[in-house]
Amino acid sequence: DLIALCLKRYLEQLGYEIPAIVTTGAMAIEQARQNSFDLILMDITLHGKMNGIEASKEIRSFCKVPIVYITGHSDIEQWQKARITEPFGYIIKPFEIRELEVVVAAAFYKFQKEEELFAISNSCNNYLEDLRGVVLRSDLDFNPLFMHGPVEQIMGYRADEIMKGNPRLEELVHPEERPLYSADDHEKLNTLTNFTIIKECRIITRDNQVRWVRETVKSMPNQLGKPIMIEWVIHDITDYKEVLCRLKEAKDEFQETHKQLLQLGKMAAIGQLAVGVAHEINNPIGFISNNMEC
User: Fold this and answer.
1) Residues of 87-105 as b/e, b for ≥16 C-beta within 10 angstroms?
2) Gap between the Cα atoms of 247 and 284, Å rounded
3) pLDDT in the model for residue 165
């Protein structure tokens, strides 16, 4: 195949090794099962009964390898079918070597970032599994009545100190975030059955360290349904916030690099990569946030 030979020559000029060239979907699947490839360039139109989209779908079911489509199609329906297989880019025929260089480089970069984000997400999952919190019950004026859990580890003060009001709960909150609970919040906690507030805030420990906590505050009713105390569950989410910061930095870094790649290339189809990586980066954030609400 002339196009395949041209691709091979171009890619070798760019420093890549091409271990295999096949012409059918079945042969592509067999090669993917037998070998470990760093990248697959898949023409959508292949010889035989199976097209490139179908072959890619099968390969993705057993092998995590970035796939870039080569196509001369401008048909919208064909593009929609291709997107389902989550490709790492498109090369539109006819193409120039510079376009090929940009798409392949971007695909490798996107795959690397996905692997890094997966590792970050896993580390956060482990953090969530080990998450422990402080359980506190107070009267309706926020005076502590009972505390249990790693109080000093999270809040920086012993439980007996907080129980005595030294410091008071509101004094633990970072000055920039006071008052954490408004008069309206306080009124609802005092009057509504099982009223719940969830807030994230910074606290200041005894040694002036700033830590992030997530407070779930709920009114506790008596048998008649009237609130008589307030229950607090306080989790240290400092590590969680650091993970979110790392995810944001990774997203910003990708977007800046991708912008530079787009300036170098002239192929509009590579714009599909920005959508793909934004989805991959936002998913871990959404997953982490959803788990924090459990």
Assistant:
1) bbbbbbeebeeebbbbbbb
2) 8
3) 92
Size of the chain in residues: 294
Residue 253's pLDDT is: 78
Q: Which residues of the chain have pLDDT under 50?
A: 128-129, 266-282, 284-294
pLDDT the model gives residue 143: 93
Q: What gap in Å lies between CA 248 and CA 285, rounded to an integer?
A: 9
Which strands, in side-by-side order, build the sheet including 67-71? Answer: 40-43, 67-71, 90-92
Four-point Cα dihedral 225, 223, 233, 282, nearest 10:
-50
Residues 21 and 9 sit within 8 Å (Cβ to Cβ): no
DSSP assignment of the chain equals: -HHHHHHHHHHHHTT-------SBHHHHHHHHHHS--S-EEEESS-BSS--HHHHHHHHHHH----EEEEE----HHHHHHHHHT--S-EEESS--HHHHHHHHHHHHHHHHHHHHHHHHHHHHHHHHHT--EEEEEE-TTS-EEEEESSHHHHHSS-HHHHHTTSS-HHHHB-GGG-SSS-HHHHHHHHHSTT-EEEEEEEEE-TT--EEEEEEEEEEEE-TTS-EEEEEEEEEE-HHHHHHHHHHHHHHHHHHHHHHHHHHH---GGGGHHHHHHHHHHHHHHHHHHHHHT-
Supply the pTM of this predicted model: 0.53
Give the pLDDT confidence score for residue 112 in this predicted structure: 80
pLDDT in tens, 261-289: 656 554 444 444 444 444 444 454 444 44
Report the Cα 169 to chain-centroid distance in Å.
Answer: 33
In whole angstroms, what is the distance from residue 199 CA to residue 186 CA?
A: 14
